[in-house]
Design a protein that fits this description.
The protein is an alpha/beta fold. Among the domains are: 2-147; 171-320, 3-Layer(aba) Sandwich (Rossmann fold); 413-503, Orthogonal Bundle (Arc Repressor Mutant, subunit A), CATH 1.10.10; 782-886. Helix content is 37%, strand content 16%. The strands form 6 sheets. It has a 17-stranded parallel β-sheet that branches. It has a 5-stranded parallel β-sheet with strand order 2-3-4-1-5, sandwiched between helices. A 3-stranded antiparallel β-sheet has the order 6-8-7. Strand 7 (474-478) and strand 8 form a beta hairpin. Helix 1 packs antiparallel against helix 3 (37-57) and helix 1 packs parallel to helix 4.
Length: 886
């Protein structure tokens, strides 16, 4: 259960805090039971872990008894109580430590009272846990702890029914591809995988191909694997179908080796087709794969929701299904809804509404067929359809068949991924998640913690990859390393996550109108787009997370109201809001780990920010803030500081963005991993030399005289992976001779400004160039054959961006240019002499996107562009006024 996992994590983090240890040492003689508190809390942790293991065994999707539901609710309440007490414990221990360190005469009587209350609450929790255990033994019988095996079968039968052959649309291309793979010339085993999120019609597509082609094979078999499988049972199923044994035949006297030997003998020198449907992990196939070794030709088709299972096939034999295009989706909806009319045609007066309904299903065949079936049973009257459309969101999430299919994916998630998944539902529909922001949020919430040699951020990055591999999040764009740089959640998946989040009391996502109706005990609240009401005072004493994107009012009254009552707030995300100031009271939120003010209109941060001793991330990018608070360096746990702002919203000039003045005592912030962007200064190099954990560093306002010391310091950063260097102005020439990175992680380099002569011969390009995957250059002079020189030094680039580059009339990409480049961006403004771009055969063999913008003298499409077979996107903008496309 999500609440239990977080409670256990909270206990683990609080027990190791120095402040809590110090509090016990100071007050243990005055407070009864305080010395035993860590032991008691650790026992509570163990009890909660055991309870969580019991809950895992229960069928939480369809509990067989209301008593089971009641017990789960009771355990959830206990877990929330534990979190509250741990936060209270941590808060007062910190206050005690601060008073002691400031040499104040702390009020011992006050703290004796507080910690006595905490000790008493721990005793009460112990009793409640004991009672919960007794209730389970008394009322929960063993059958209640066993998932109903019929549930899965019923869902599968209904899924097959929903996507019957008559309702298969838009599959012609995929069917042709699968058929070609079946009859390819390869001998021996060939694995073919069909992957994608639940409800896309993987089983229906493969079944269509299987039924059409199976009789062309000597033997064939279809086996449903599912989440709960047994390798021996799979072999028995396979043998029954090959030999034709009745289903009742147990074959119990045969062990795995015997079963495999019989299968091998039966399939020897024969052509065999097998479908393994609904495979959830790789082992399901690897346990039985050697049974096919004797086949002359075997084709194994695997359907799966997991991308790591899909890698069982070679890349050339993997098919990843995508949602239907709108036209196909509309055709499917009409077939299901208007099945009894001629050609299944939609009435003209309902067309607009029908298109809106289809859009809401986002191309998911399962949803389209389910909703189509619902609308097929009502009169073709506009007012009836309008009323039903208003309720469509509830219908989609409450539809038993849709929920059952999507629930399978959710229930297969391990606990740590469930929290991350549910968290994404707090953001609006179609919200584009930045990889970095999502990782920072998960770390702040405590979902990802340090594991052995991995930082919390690295752990969170793995969690993100897992959710993507499980098709719970969709990748929108990849970065230069092939990682997801942005992703989104399918609307139907989000609806499911929201309903579970509400049921689990994980969090609520509401508009402003229902915000005043929220329960006081809400722990995570997303209220995006709300307008302030100065007469309204809201109290959420247990609130941990507030997400309010695009808030419409600049007033801070409601925000102040919430912050004043939410003492344990952990995350404050106000991205894209109209807010203009942050309340001074924010400094009282000791538990605050994340502040997101990106693209707000905030002009200053209160000095009280320096009191946020647990703050991990401060994101004030693209705000109106010009200076950091004087005491920001006191926030010693700060890991990510993102603080540049736009000076020119049009981004046309050289200094369109500027960094912040580096805070005094920056060197004290030893936990910093991200520092974007600070201005160069005389002592910046010395300050940075003490920040050994920095991974991403952006520096602007660099002069020629800064280069030697600053670049030498940057070169010594062992973990540096991303570096931006910007000169004081477009005429300042920077010398890169001392930039000799020791880091093997540096893969992204952005340079803005003129270069000193022979720069391309310096170590950063001559020796480190092969490690770079991303290079962005702007406002510099490179001379003739610049692309040839760059490609010879930077053979592993996957992304290249050139902007305002001077010094050449002809750009030439030779036959071996940039073999790994996928995205080449040219924004070459103010280059009146460039009139030709030549692409030789063999250049850019894997290029996917080419942007050619603002080359006013370029009159024709680049010569040789037709050789770029992998090109998917081509932009040709603001070129010669007589530009010709042929």
């Amino acid at each position: 259960m999500e609440a239990v996992i977080l409670a256990v994590s909270k206990i683990g983090s609080v027990l190791v805090e120095e402040a809590t240890k110090a509090a016990i040492a100071k007050l243990s003689e005055k407070v009864a039971n305080l010395k035993e508190l860590p032991t008691k809390v650790d026992e509570i942790k163990k009890e909660l872990e055991t309870m969580n293991n019991v809950i895992k065994k229960m069928s939480t999707t369809h509990p067989t008894d209301e008593v089971v539901k009641g017990w789960i609710v009771e355990v959830r309440g206990l877990a929330h109580h534990v979190q509250d007490v741990m936060d209270k414990y941590s808060y007062h221990a910190l206050m005690l430590e601060e008073e002691s360190s400031m040499k104040k005469v702390f009020t011992k009587k006050k703290y004796v009272t507080v910690f006595s209350e905490i000790a008493e609450e721990i005793i009460q929790i112990e009793k409640k846990i004991e009672n919960a255990g007794k209730r389970k033994e008394r009322w929960l019988q063993q059958p209640d702890l066993i998932p109903n095996p019929l549930t899965y079968i019923e869902r599968k039968q209904f899924q097959d029914c929903l996507l019957a052959q008559d309702y298969l649309v838009g599959i012609e291309g995929n069917r042709k591809l699968l058929t070609e793979w079946l009859y390819s010339s390869e001998q021996g085993n060939t694995v073919i995988t069909v992957s994608g999120m639940g409800g896309l019609g993987k089983t229906a597509l493969v079944n269509n191909v299987y039924e059409r082609e199976k009789n062309n094979f000597d033997a064939f078999s279809w086996i449903v694997v599912s989440q709960t499988y047994n390798g021996v049972d799979l072999l028995r199923k396979l043998l029954r179908k090959i030999i034709g044994y009745p289903e009742q035949t147990t074959l119990s006297d045969l062990d795995p080796r015997d079963l495999k030997n019989i299968i091998k003998e039966r399939l020897k020198d024969r052509k065999f087709l097998v479908v393994l449907d609904d495979v959830w992990n790789r082992e399901a196939y690897t346990l039985i794969e050697d049974a096919f070794l004797s086949c002359q030709t075997s084709r194994i088709i695997i359907t799966t929701r997991q991308d790591d299972v899909a890698t069982l096939a070679y890349p050339t034999h993997r098919l990843k299904l995508k949602p239907l295009e709108h036209n196909d989706a509309f055709d499917l909806f009409c077939k299901k809804t208007f099945y009894n009319s001629m050609h299944s045609k939609c009435p003209q007066d309902l067309e607009k509404l029908a298109h809106n309904i289809v859009d809401r299903c986002e191309g998911l065949p399962l949803a389209i067929v389910s909703i189509g079936g619902l609308f097929s049973s009502v009169k073709l009257e506009s007012y009836i359809w309008n009323e039903m459309y208003k309720q469509l969101g509830d219908e989609l999430v409450n539809n038993d068949h849709i929920r059952a299919i999507l629930n399978l994916s959710y229930r297969d998630l391990p606990g740590h991924l469930r929290n991350c998944f549910l968290y994404c539902s707090l953001f609006p529909e179609d919200h584009l998640f930045s990889r970095d922001t999502l990782i920072w949020l998960w770390v702040a919430e405590g979902f990802a913690v340090r594991k052995q040699h991995s930082t919390p951020e690295e752990v969170a990055d793995r969690y993100l990859r897992e959710l993507i591999q499980r098709n719970m999040l969709d990748v929108v764009e990849n970065d230069e390393l092939g990682r997801a740089s942005s992703c989104k959640m399918h609307d139907l998946v989000r609806d499911l996550a929201l309903s579970i989040a509400k049921e689990e009391k994980f969090g609520f996502s509401n508009d402003y109108g229902t915000m005043i109706e929220m329960e006081r005990d809400v722990r995570r609240l997303s209220s995006c787009g709300w307008e302030n009401n100065d007469a309204l005072k809201l109290k959420f004493p247990r609130l941990r997370t507030l997400v309010s994107l695009r808030a419409m009012s600049p007033s801070t009254y409601m925000l102040s109201s919430i912050l004043s009552e939410s003492n344990y707030l952990t995350v404050l995300e106000l991205q894209d809001s109209e807010i203009t100031e942050v309340p001074e009271s924010i400094g009282n939120l000791f538990n605050l780990r994340y502040i997101g003010l990106r693209r707000t209109k905030v002009k200053t941060l209160p000095q009280s920010v320096e009191k946020l001793s647990n703050l991990h991330t401060l994101d004030i990018k693209s705000t109106k803030i010009e200076k950091l608070p004087k005491g920001i360096a006191k926030v010693k746990k700060l890991r990510h500081l993102i603080a540049d702002r736009y000076a020119d919203e049009t981004q046309s000039g050289f200094q369109y963005f500027v960094g912040m003045q580096a805070p005094k005592n920056l060197s004290n912030m030893e936990e910093l991993q991200t520092l974007e962007t600070v201005q160069a200064s005389k002592d910046l190099a010395e300050q940075l030399s003490k920040l050994l954990k920095l991974r991403s560093v952006w520096i602007d306002n660099i002069s020629y005289t800064d280069c030697a010391r600053l670049f030498a310091t940057l070169s010594n950063m062992q973990l540096l992976s991303s570096l931006l260097i910007s000169a004081t102005n477009e005429n300042e020439a920077l010398c890169f001779e001392e930039l000799r990175p020791k880091s093997k992680e540096l893969h992204k380099l952005i340079i803005r400004g003129q270069w000193a002569k022979q720069t391309l011969d310096y170590p950063i390009f001559r020796y480190h160039g092969t490690q770079l995957n991303y290079l962005a250059l702007s406002w510099c002079y490179l001379g003739e054959d610049m692309l040839g020189i760059l490609s010879s030094r930077l053979e592993n680039l996957t992304c290249l961006r050139l902007n305002n580059i001077h010094g050449t009339k002809t750009l030439v990409l030779d036959a071996k240019a940039f073999p790994r480049l996928k995205m080449l961006t040219m924004v070459l403004k103010h280059m009146p002499d460039v009139n030709q771009l030549v692409v030789a055969g063999g250049a850019l063999p894997v290029i996917e996107g080419l942007y050619i913008v603002s080359l006013p003298e370029l009159e024709r499409v680049p010569q040789g562009i037709e050789t770029l077979r992998s090109l998917k996107k081509l932009w040709l903008l603001n070129l010669h006024k007589y530009f010709k496309s042929h």
